[in-house]
Amino acid sequence: MSKQYKTFLVLVFGIFVGVSVSITSSVLAEKKAEESVGLPLNELRNFSDIFARVKSDYVEEVDDKTLLEHAIRGMLTGLDPHSTYLNNDEYKELKIGTTGKFGGLGIQVGMEDGFVKVISPIDDTPAFRAGIESGDLIIRLDDKSVKGMTLNDAVKIMRGEPGTDIKLTVIREGADKPLPFTVTRDIISVKSVKSRILEPDYGYIRISNFQSKTARDLVSELSNLKKENKNELKGLVLDLRNNPGGVLSAAADVSDAFIDEGKLVYTQGRIANSDFEFNAKPGDIMNGSPVVVLINGGSASASEIVAGALQDHKRAVVMGSKSFGKGSVQTIQELRSGGAVKITTARYFTPSGRSIQGEGITPDIILDHYDIKDSKDDDKSLRIKESDLSGSISNPTKSQEAIKKAEEEGTKDEEKDEKIKASDDFQLFEALLLLKGLNILNKS
Questions:
Q1: Residue 9's pLDDT is what?
Q2: DSSP states of 319-367
Q3: What backbone phi and psi angles, to 5 degrees, belong to 146?
Q4: Protein fold of 101-189
Q5: Which of 48, 285, 302, 314 could pair covalently with 8 via S-S, beta carbons 3.0-4.6 A apart?
């Protein structure tokens, strides 16, 4: 056994065991060490051999630190798409991202078949405005092929100075050739919760991602909607489409806002502190009024937790298309070097015990996205009603003048109150119709 190999084994054992290990050339000693420590010595021997060959034979000189960092990255990325090593700079960017302000293009990404897959573009960001869509596969960044890059390498290229451009070449389902997009980098300040009144008594809240303060912002936005409506809301649309997820506890808190009691979500892993259970506290910010949750293929992780909890408790009707299917929990563990390791430590389950991993949430009402065009030929003034017919008999409970006046006022109200059309957002339009139907049913 060479002196270099013996030294390397001592180093490896020191890293893994945390004690000094004396390595001898005796086969018996190696077997005893393998039995007592549980380390795969043959694999470590291969690693040592490859390490030495790269050091001596690779076309360019590479320092030990770089080689070991590559080895660590490879070990983690080989586990699943979400486990990774973060150096100092990457860890700082991750912490900034969870608080709502960071630099880049504004897309949540993962890896698929060696390419960067867009899980979801974030609302009101450069990527969103450029037309990047959930499910797009990025195959080139400027003139560089993505094939063979790690996710961190690709993210580094996409990050850059605000105001600078980057060209993304993407493959999109249904497109017959790759699509080019030029995106201008910017500082991404994400407001995770937005709201508006759809029609009198019916509200809309959009959550674009889950940050540490999302639940608090949700309560604030709903309070503002009630003030604007000057009354309690009769129904709410909670839009989680293209929401890539975020902080687990924030998802539990958002679910808790609508649910009075019971389990919200729980996690199971191999180590004791990976098992969590979140339970609801009394109180429902909608006071039992109907809620419709919109999801699609870009709804992942934390947004699936909310949809699953509200669906299991039958607190909301989930509408849209099947969600992404990320049912695993990643834990960020700081390292003494200043970096961190992000590693999958658990799977999460909905209150009824469903695992979403690889399956996603199936909506109660499946409704794909459609492009609807408004008819320009529907002139209400040309419609003929019973009261317009010659010789039409009178209504015994209402005069013709009163009927005509009511119809005119109804037309004005329609024009005044129409805040959403099917052509604007078909799924949202249908969600509003469903809320109205549920409200009528509740009254009866």
A1: 43
A2: EES------EEEEEEE-TTS-EEEEEEEEEE-TT--B-TTT-PPPSEE-
A3: -75, -25
A4: Pdz3 Domain (2.30.42)
A5: 48
Q: CA-to-CA distance for 81 and 242, rounded, in angstroms?
A: 19
278 vs 443, which has greater pLDDT?
278
Catalytic annotation, pick one of 192, 289, 301, 303:
301
E-strand stretches of 219-327: 235-239, 263-269, 277-279, 291-295, 317-320
Catalytic residue among 312, 323, 342, 425: 312
pLDDT at site 38: 67
Q: Three-state DSSP class for 112?
A: strand
**Which tokens hold the place of 333?**
């563990």
State the residue for tokens 């010789």.
391
Query: Is 326 considered catalytic here?
Result: yes
Residues 301, 276: contact at Cβ < 8 Å?
A: no
Q: Can you give the pTM of this predicted structure?
A: 0.71
Supply 47's token pair: 């690693």
User: Under CATH, domain 191-444 is a member of which superfamily?
Assistant: 2-enoyl-CoA Hydratase; Chain A, domain 1 (3.90.226.10)
Structure tokens at 302: 């934390």
pLDDT tens column, 30-82: 455 455 556 788 899 999 999 999 999 999 999 999 999 999 989 998 899 88
3-state DSSP helix/strand/coil % of the chain, to nearest 5:
35, 25, 40
Spatial CA neighbour of 325 closest among 121, 73, 81: 81
48 is catalytic: no
Tokens standing for residue 355: 């695992």
The torsion defined by the Cα of 139, 141, 143 and 148, in degrees rounded to 10, comes to -60
Tell me how far CA of residue 422 lies from CA of 206, 262, 372, 429, in angstroms. Answer: 18, 37, 6, 5
- DSSP secondary structure letters along 117-162: EEEEEPTTSHHHHHT--TT-EEEEETTEE-TT--HHHHHHHH---T
For residue 253, indicate whether it is catalytic: no
Q: Which candidate in 326, 328, 342, 425 is catalytic?
A: 326
Residue boundaries of the structural domains of the chain: 3-62, 101-189, 191-444
For residue 67, the one-letter residue type is L
In this predicted structure, what is the pLDDT of residue 343?
A: 93
Rounded CA Rg of the chain = 29
Residue 8 CB neighbour total at 10 angstroms = 19
- Report residue 261 as tokens: 């009691």
pLDDT band at 327 (very low <50, low <70, confident <90, very high): very high
Phi, psi of 76 (to 5 degrees): -80, -45
Q: Give yes or no on whether 101-189 and 191-444 have one common fold.
A: no
- C-alpha to C-alpha distance for 349 and 362, rounded to whole angstroms: 14
How do beta strands 328-334 and 340-349 pair?
antiparallel
